[in-house]
Amino acid sequence: MRARRRAMLARKTKCAWSPRRKLKLADMKRKIWHRNRSFTLLIAEHTV
Q: Degrees (nearest 5) of the Cα angle 12, 22, 14?
């Protein structure tokens, strides 16, 4: 019984962290990082 529940949980987590979702998250992070980087560069240019 416990093993079955664990299997169900594992399946649920696998569904939650689908490759597509992981990709989406990575893409979001990359976009945010790029935006932040350009922003900091802009500030650096203004200070110099």
A: 15
- What proportions of the chain, in percent to the nearest 5, are helix, strand and coil? 90, 0, 10
Q: Which two tokens stand for residue 23?
A: 């990709």
Burial of 30 (0-12, 13-18, 19+ CB in 10 A): exposed
Phi, psi of 18 (to 5 degrees): -70, 155
pTM of the model: 0.37
Sequence ranges of the domains in the chain: 18-48
> pLDDT of 1-48, one tens digit each?
567 766 666 666 565 667 788 888 888 888 887 788 887 777 777 776
